[in-house]
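cron nightly-structures :: item 1 of 1
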Amino acid sequence: MKAKLLNFFKEAWRPTLLIGAICLVIYLLSLLASGSTYFIFWGDAANQAESNFPTLADVRDTQGGNFNWTFIFIFAVVIYVYVSELKKKNYRGIVAGLSLYGVHWLYEIANAIIGKAAGAALWNVSPESTSFILLIGVSWELSMMFSLAGIIMSKLLPDDPHKKILGINNRWLFAIGNAAFFAIFEIFLAGTSAFIWVYPWWGAIPVFITTYIPFFLAAFLVPDAKVKTQRIFLLATWGLAIILLAVLIPAGII
C-alpha cells in the first residue's frame, strides 16, 4: 500500500505542477487583460440583468425566430463523422467521442440545475447566438462540436498509452494541453454576447480544472480500458444522462 502511494505521488507531481503553471499563466494574463472587452477571464454578476441572458422559456424554443437549416447540416456532418469512423473500425475513436460527449451532457445538466436552483447558471448561451438552445448553457452548435471533440483530439494521441512526454503520461499531458486550449479559447467566447459567465468566482481557471480536464481524461483514458470497463462507463454515463433528462425536462427544472 505504501509503495502504491509513493508511486502515485511520483507520477502525480509533474501533471499537478503543469496544471498549476497553466493556472498561473491564465491568472497573469487576466491581470494584463484587466478592463478588456475582448477577453473575459471571470464572470460578472451584472450579466444576469442583460437582455441576452437566457431564461427557461428560451430553452428548446422553436418559435423564437432563430431556428434555421444549419441545424440539419451540422447534424448531418456529425453523423457522417461517426459513420466514417465506424466503417474504418475506429472503435477507440468512437469510444473517445461518446465518452467526452456523455460527460459533457452530465455537466450541462448539472449547470442547468444550478441555474434553476440559484437563479443563474455557471455558463449560459444567448438565444440570439444559436439556432436552438438545448439546455441553458449549451446551444445546438456547441453540443455538436463537443460530440466530435473526443474523436478529433484522440487522433493526436500516441499509439502507446504508456509513453511519457516530459515525464508525464501522454494521455494526461494531452488531456491537460487540450483542456488549456479550450479554456483559453473560452476566454474569447466570454467576451462576446453569445456566451455568458455570471459568477465572479467562475471563469477560465475553474473551467480549465473542473470542466475540460475531466472531459479530455474521459476521452483519452476510457478507450485504453478493457472493453467491459468501456461499456460500463458509457452505459453508466449515458444512462444517467438520459434518466435525468427524462425526469427533469418534463418537471420544468431544466
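cron nightly-structures :: done
The helical segments are 2-32, 70-87, 91-118, 140-154, 170-190, 204-221, 227-248.
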